[in-house]
Amino acid sequence: MLGLNKKDFTLLLIVVILTMLAPFILNPFPESSDLAQFNAGYPDLMQRFVIFGIFAIGFNILFGLTGYLSFGHAAFLGVGSYAAMWVFKLLGMNVLPALAISVLMSGVFAVLIGYISLRRSGIYFSILTLAFAMMSYALAYSVLATDMDGPGQQGLLQKGLTGGETGLQLTLQDPRILGTQTTETGNTPVPSLFGLEMRSSAEWAVGDWLFTFSVGYYFCAVIMLIAFYLSIRIFRSPFGMMLRAVKSNQQRMSYTGLNPKPYTLAAFVISGMYAGLAGGLMVAMDPLAGPERMFWTASGEVVLMTILGGAGTLIGPVLGAGVIKYMENIISKINSTILHEWFAFMPDGIEDAMVTMVYPFIGKGWHLTLGIMFMLVVIFLPGGLVEGGQRIARLFRRRKDKPSGGDPEHHPKPAPHVAE
Amino acid sequence: MEAIILQVLNGLDKGSAYALIALGLTLIFGTLGVVNFAHGALFMLGAFCAVTLSRILTLSREVIDETQKDFLGNPLKVEIPYVHDIFGETLGATIIDWSVPLAIIIAIPIMIAFGVAMERGLIKYFYKRPHADQILVTFGLAIVLQEIIKYFYGANPIPTPAPEAFIGSFDFGALIGMDPNVIIYPYWRLVYFAFAMIIITAVFAFLQFTTFGMVVRAGMADRETVGLLGINIDRRFTIMFGIAAAVAGLAGVMYTPIVAPNYHMGMDFLVLSFVVVVVGGMGSLPGAVLAGFLLGILESFASMGAVIDLIPGINQVIIYLVAIVILLIRPRGLMGRKGVMEE
Question: What domains lie within chain B, and their CATH numbers?
Answer without folding.
Answer: 2-57+97-329 (1.10.3470)
